[in-house]
Amino acid sequence: MQPEQRERRTRHFVPLGGFNEVAPGVAYKTTAIVNLQTIDVPEQSSWVLVDTGLSISAPFILRAAAMRPNSRPSCIVLTHGHFDHAGAVEHLAEIWDVPVYAHALEVPYLTGKSKYPPFDPTVGGVMAQMSRFYPRAPYDLGDRVRELPSNGELDELPGWYIVHTPGHTAGHVSLFREHDAVLLAGDAFCTVDQRSLAKTVVQYREFAIPPAYATTDWDAARHSVQKLADLRPSLVIAGHGQPIAGPDTAERLERFAEEFQPPEHGRYVRQPAVADENGVISVPPPVADPVPRIAAGVAIAGAAAAATYLIKRHKAA
Ligand SMILES: [Zn+2]
Ligand SMILES: [Zn+2]
Questions:
Q1: Which pTM value belongs to this model?
Q2: Does the pLDDT at position 156 exceed 80?
């Protein structure tokens, strides 16, 4: 190895401002409701942004990145194209002038071709009620979008393996670093149970089903969780919740995979949405929705008040 290369590999990694380094060269930041990740790539003196958060996150990310010597990542990788993961992607990709990688089955939602299947507010929980108001229109990144290589190996991310983990969306991917078993799970599952308002407020760490209102194939989601459990991760960062690490991480994820239970009812529980490289082909018919929009608004206001109260109590404790 050349001295210069050796120096690069051992240089001290400085995470983006506000990001926490939780494994060598891997940092995350929770913005609003979702986690973004950066991966340092010392071999190439570069870094990669994994997911971009809501559209309002763009100025913060740009400011944090501008403080670094290499203020542009080599690329952006999206676990999937939902608004909370890809909301800032158009802005960031344009300013940085970098490619955006996503799975082929996710590309139609990033090139303006297809809307995601409708969210399912009937599946249970506050987040599901709020999904009535979430956007699902596609982004249009034009030719900045590149399909992830089908062998799972991306030149910009040496040592990492991209795992296709469909279920939450058809082209959802997770990222796995083999040498220390670090897993970025995206929304293949959560590390907080979003069905419980109290647990969500205190960010109680546990493996939990993917965001239910937006998961459109529960059989595939279960298989994907098992696929990730088989990797025996030592540290997991999911799209929602705090990271989970420790010697029992693999066992805990294995147990979760074995006991995985889809919601009891919901639009996609018995029948999945079907999609291909051109987008959505079919969705199951809507199920009875007992909560009209106005009542949902009242419920959300009540939940927000309860959340404020719980946060105050949590901080005071
Ligand atoms: Zn999602
Ligand atoms: Zn998400």
A1: 0.89
A2: yes
